[in-house]
Amino acid sequence: MYKALLKPLFFRLDAEEAHHLVFNNLKRAHRLPGAAALLRGLYDYQHPSLAREVFGLTFRNPVGIAAGFDKNAELTDELAALGFGFVEIGTVTPRPQLGNPQPRLFRLPQDEALVNRMGFNNQGAEAAAARLRQRRNRELIIGGNIGKNKDTPNELAAQDYVACVEALHEVVDYFVVNVSSPNTPNLRQLQEREPLIALLQQVQERNQALPTPRPLLLKIAPDLTDSQLDDILLIAREAELSGLVATNTTISRTGLTTPEAQVSALGAGGLSGRPLRRRATEVIRYLSRQSRGQMPIMGVGGIHSAQDAQEKLAAGAALVQLYSGFIYEGPSLVKQINRALAAS
Questions:
Q1: A Gene Ontology biological process annotation (predicted)?
Q2: Using one digit for the tens of pLDDT, what is the confidence trace for 4-30?
């Protein structure tokens, strides 16, 4: 029904407008008597073999929704009903911010891809925390993807990440430090070895001082070289990270079917979707091999089918996340993946 009826309607709208329309209608529908049970019946697939124990947490299945979809923790119960094993909210910043000027989210249908330059638009860490305290589904694993405000200089970035940890630690199950988005000026400079280890050590120190420390992960860009990935693994061990998220969106436009002039006209932004699949898998495989399978990895990037998800897991990912594939394929994709994994 999604691909035949709803998707053509949504794709006639501006991409961000369609996103908000889906959000609002899903929230309204979920409030109707019996709606949650109906959604679970249609899209949720459960099997004991799907459970995963990763960095001390039990995930009911290995398929999550990536950060960027539910920035403000508005749809966690609804996404659980759609069959997701975990939801990563954010990217959340300490203070609310509007993000970059619109339009800032674009579709490339020929490539089944998205380009975004959202710029960490969100309502702030306190608003997300308040919303998570009100959620009904307490069994769903929640990740908190955290970032810095646009006007915070890099030398003070650690203060913003620490503030997010303090605001969210009681309501999330793990944290992801996001320094790899291409849409906040100079943010990716924090991926360099010296600033990154300083940042992660400060965040980890505060995290470990809390009554219940949370697993701390790092989300990395797909555009890093092998030597930079080696540095990431060394830094992850030094900062005692629990895992890595590979990968964020890419700044590359290589190999697209969409005409170059059309892509260039969209301007800057991170590319996600099918074109990212191969590179994201390469990064996962490299990190897994270099760490000898000792560093848990969340695999994300270009998952549009059960086969794509299995590819990421075979490359060394412990868990997978969807974003663009969910937009293009619809909610049945989650069930397709889980059913295929249970049958394998």
A1: 'de novo' pyrimidine nucleobase biosynthetic process
A2: 899 999 999 999 999 999 999 999 988
User: Which two three-digit tokens encode residue 177?
Assistant: 């430090």
- Sorted by where each begins, the domain ranges of the chain are 2-343
Between vectors from CA 69 to CA 63 and to CA 75, what angle results, nearest 5°? 85
- Report which residue type is found at 159: Q
**CATH number at 2-343:** 3.20.20.70
* Residue 227 in tokens: 């030597």
Q: Which residue positions form the known binding site for substrate? A: 71, 116-120, 178, 183, 248-249
* Tens digit of each residue's pLDDT (9 = 90 or more) over 156-174: 999 999 999 999 999 999 9
Least confident of 108-117, 182-191, 254-263: 182-191
Tell me whether strands 270-273 and 113-116 are parallel, antiparallel or unpaired. Answer: antiparallel
Q: What are phi and psi of 238, to 5 degrees?
A: -65, -40
Pairing of the two strands 86-92 and 141-146 = parallel
pTM (whole model) above 0.90 = yes
Q: Report the catalytic residues.
A: 181
What per-residue confidence (pLDDT) applies to 130?
98
Report the chain's C-alpha Rg in angstroms: 19
How far, in Å, CA of 246 to CA of 243, rounded? Answer: 10
Q: pLDDT of 98-111, one tens digit each?
A: 999 999 999 999 99
The answer, yes or no, to whether residue 1 has pLDDT greater than 90, is no
Q: Is 266 left (phi over 0), alpha (psi -120 to 50) or beta?
A: alpha
Residue positions in the annotated binding site?
Answer: 67-71, 91, 116-120, 145, 178, 183, 219, 247-249, 273, 302, 323-324
- How far, in Å, CA of 292 to CA of 287, rounded? 8
Would you tell me how many other CB atoms lie within 10 Å of the CB of residue 110?
Answer: 11
